Amino acid sequence: MRIGVVKEIKTDEYRVALTPAGARELVLYGHEVVVETTAGDGSSFSDAAYVAAGASIAACDDVWGSCEMVMKVKEPLQPEYAKIRDGQILFTYLHLAPDLELTKALIQTGATCIAYETVETDDHRLPLLAPMSEVAGRLAPQMGAHSLEKPKGGRGILLAGLPGVAPAKVVVLGGGIVGYNAALIAVGMQADVWVLERSVDRMRELENMMDGRITLEISNRLMVEQAIAGADMVIGAVLVAGARAPRLITKDMLSGMKPGAVLVDVAIDQGGCFETSKPTTHSDPTYVVDGVVHYCVANMPGAVPITSTRGLTNVTLPYAEILANKGLDEAIRFSKPLARGVNVMAGKVTNQPVAESHGLPYIHLSDLVDGVDPSV
């Protein structure tokens, strides 16, 4: 298979979909890897490094135009829509639930669009989302602490406090991978950390994992209102796989928060979990609503591309190998996780939460590809 890796054009996005080491593995299987010139520069991978690994370097249009599968990091932007071809495989993060325009554009292409974030194992893990969730979770307290500084519009409080001066209160909404990693770093920064989680079983796990260093509370509307009222920082870390994130904090609730408190919305890729959230960039990361600072950068892991690119390739490469070695139809018959990752195929939406988010018809993948397990 001819596999293309294109340069990301999203603002402040420095990751690349494949490391030279990943390219080398695909080449060893007999595939051809074509990398857009300078695609790896942001992650400190030169064109020469890819060539040394056995890949070739080409211009953007040549990559899109000649490759059977294109690997990316972020969702295609409007200038890229027309480059996607009928019958092509697009393998990347898509986050379609909050983006009707992109969903319709991908339907029109006729391509098979596989979303990293909905590749799901039988035990409900999301292996291609996990490392970026870990990165975003670990970045969230760091970015939030910076935004709490007075020159950045925040309250002017140090997370760790001082002897005789109380630390900042950090409230994490959601105890999954993002929430756990956010809590881990916030505790390391010596903040007073509260995690609100809906699952009592998960709270028991977190109690053991964090060795009792955090306060755990059940997540419901009243508890959220009470917890954020005393918070210096709130980290939104909720996820419903493939679907739009639930709105946990409304605009009306901001009036009960401290002036200069910070909201960090890690769920912004899926539409955000605060009513007042809107996507921002690393160059212009925050804005203020009703005295509360909002940090809603839509590609947080892009700030640390060397770490993120390596972590991403570690998990995407095995699935890219399945697609390349077996071909599309056989790959999704062989791998249930990959089948669950298919969001759009042959002009149809094949992911139910995405279809429901936009009121579009949903077609099960087994109706398009013979032999796909109907239970997927």
What does this structure look like?
With 376 residues, the chain is α/β, with parallel strands linked by helices. It folds into two domains: 2-110 and 305-367, NAD(P)-binding Rossmann-like Domain (Rossmann fold), CATH 3.40.50.720; 130-303, NAD(P)-binding Rossmann-like Domain (Rossmann fold, 3-Layer(aba) Sandwich). It is built from 13 helices and 15 strands. The chain has helices at 20-28, 47-52, 60-66, 78-81, 100-109, 130-147, 177-188, 200-209, 221-229, 305-326, 328-334, 336-341, 352-358, and strands at 2-5, 32-36, 56-58, 69-71, 89-92, 112-115, 169-173, 192-197, 215-218, 233-236, 262-265, 286-289, 292-295, 342-345, 348-349. It has an eight-stranded mixed sheet, sandwiched between helices. Strands 9-8-7-10-11-13-12 form a seven-stranded mixed sheet, with helices on both faces. Strand 7 (169-173), helix 7 and strand 8 form a beta-alpha-beta unit. Helix 10 packs across helix 11 (328-334).
Summarize the structure in short.
The protein has helices at residues 20-28, 47-52, 60-66, 78-81, 100-109, 130-147, 177-188, 200-209, 221-229, 305-326, 328-334, 336-341, 352-358; strands at 2-5, 32-36, 56-58, 69-71, 89-92, 112-115, 169-173, 192-197, 215-218, 233-236, 262-265, 286-289, 292-295, 342-345, 348-349.
